[in-house]
Specification:
362 residues; mainly alpha
C-alpha cells in the first residue's frame, strides 16, 4: 500500500540566537558605559514577553564584571563567523571562577549556535543543554534555546530526548502554538506512537481546516497505526473539498479504497485524476490500473478487465500487462486480439514468455 511520508513536517534550521539574547549589561562605572547599559536594560524590559504564562521567573540578565570583556570578545568572534573561536571563548567564560549564571548561559548558547554552524550537531546539543542548565537567561532567550535544543535532538533522531525537552518546554511556557504541537506530533510519529500523533494533527486540522499538510500527516499516522478506515475518511473529506491536488495524495486515497475493497470509488478517483492531469501516464499508474483490472477479472467482469488492461499496457514498464490482457482476451474468446496482445508482450519482455507463445500457437 502506498503511504504518505510521515515526516512531512518542515522544520526550520536552528537560527542564531545572538540577536535574540540580551546583550551583556556593562558594569563599568564610567558615564558612557553606564548610559549604554541603562538604554540596553530599558530596551530589554520593553521587549514583549513571548511566554507570558511561563511558570519560570525570568532572572536579571546581567553579565558579571569579569565576564563582560570575554562575552564582548565572543560576540566579535561570532560576527566574524569564527565558530571555533566562539567555542573556545565560551569554554573560557564557563571556566571563569567568577562567571555567573548569565555569563555561562549566554556563552553556552553562542557555542551551541557555533557548533551547529560547524555541523557538529551533537556538540550543539551539549552546549544548548548546558545553557539551559545554567539557567541565567531571560525567559524569551531561555526558551528560545530550549526550543532550539528540541529541534536539534529531533534532527539527530534522539526522539525520546526531544520529546522530554519539548514536554518540559510546553509545561513551563504553557504555550500552545500550532508549530509546537506539530513538532510534538512529528516526534511521536517518529517514535511510532502514531495514534497520539494522529490525534494531535487532527486537533490542529480542526483549527486550520484548509491546511492540507496537517490532514495528510494525520492520515499517514493513522495508516502507520493500521487504522486504514479512519485514514481513508480523512483523505476522502479532503478530496471532496478539492484539497488533494498531487498524484501522491490521490494515490494515498485510492490505495486506501482498494485496501477497503471499494473498487468503484478507487476507479473514480483515478479517472478523475487522469482527466485533471494530476495522474500522468507511467509505470505507477499502469500498476494501479492492473490492480483494478485483476479485481474486475476475479469478479467475472471481463469487459471491464479488458478495458483496464488496455489502459495499463501501453504505459507499463514491461510486457506483463499485455500478457494479462492477452490471457483475458483469450478467455473472452477474442482470439485474434489475444494474439496481438501476446506479440506485444513478447516484444516488451515478460517473465514467462512461454505463456505468450502458448496463446500464439493456438
Amino acid at each position: 500500500m502506498n503511504t504518505l511520508l510521515r515526516r512531512s513536517l518542515s522544520l526550520a534550521l536552528v537560527t542564531a540566537l545572538a540577536g535574540a539574547l540580551a546583550a551583556p549589561t556593562v558594569s563599568a562605572q564610567d558615564g558612557l558605559a553606564r548610559r549604554m547599559a541603562d538604554r540596553q536594560a530599558k530596551k530589554t524590559q520593553e521587549q514583549a514577553a513571548q511566554y507570558p504564562n511561563a511558570t519560570r521567573r525570568s532572572p536579571e540578565a546581567s553579565a558579571s564584571p569579569k565576564g563582560i570583556k570575554l562575552l564582548k570578545e565572543m560576540q566579535g568572534l561570532y560576527e566574524k563567523e569564527d565558530w571555533a573561536g566562539v567555542i573556545a571563548k565560551a569554554e573560557e567564560v564557563a571556566a571563569l571562577p567568577a562567571a555567573n549564571a548569565y555569563d555561562k548561559s549566554f556563552a553556552y548558547s553562542m557555542a551551541g549556535n557555533a557548533a551547529a554552524n560547524l555541523d557538529d550537531q551533537n556538540k550543539a546539543i551539549e552546549y544548548f543543554s548546558k545553557a539551559i542548565a545554567a539557567d541565567g537567561l531571560d525567559n524569551n532567550s531561555h526558551y528560545a534555546v530550549m526550543y532550539n535544543l528540541v529541534v536539534m535532538q529531533y534532527q539527530q533522531e534522539k526522539y525520546p530526548e526531544a520529546l522530554a525537552t519539548l514536554e518540559r518546554f510546553l509545561s513551563e511556557t504553557k504555550a500552545d502554538k500550532p508549530e509546537y504541537l506539530s513538532l510534538k506530533a512529528s516526534i511521536l510519529s517518529s517514535m511510532e506512537r502514531n495514534e497520539e500523533a494522529a490525534a494531535l494533527w487532527q486537533q490542529l486540522a480542526e483549527q486550520k481546516p484548509d491546511d492540507k499538510r496537517l490532514l495528510l500527516n494525520a492520515a499517514a499516522a493513522l495508516q502507520a497505526a493500521d487504522k486504514f478506515d479512519e485514514a481513508v475518511k480523512i483523505l476522502e473529506k479532503a478530496y471532496q473539498r478539492g484539497l488533494l491536488t498531487e498524484s501522491r495524495e490521490l494515490r494515498a486515497l485510492y490505495s486506501g479504497y482498494m485496501n477497503a475493497g471499494k473498487w468503484a470509488e478507487a476507479q473514480k478517483v483515478i479517472e478523475d485524476g487522469v482527466a485533471k492531469g494530476i495522474l500522468q501516464p507511467g509505470p505507477d499508474l499502469a500498476r494501479d490500473y492492473q490492480v483494478l483490472a485483476q479485481n474486475a477479472y476475479y469478479n467475472d467482469d471481463l469487459p471491464l478487465a479488458i478495458e483496464l488492461y488496455r489502459r495499463a499496457a501501453p504505459m507499463a514498464a514491461d510486457g506483463e500487462a499485455y500478457l494479462n490482457l492477452a490471457k483475458v482476451l483469450d478467455v473472452a474468446g477474442k482470439k485474434a486480439e489475444a494474439k496481438d496482445a501476446a506479440k506485444q508482450a513478447l516484444e516488451r519482455g515478460v517473465k514467462k514468455p512461454e505463456d505468450a507463445k502458448r496463446i500464439l500457437s493456438r
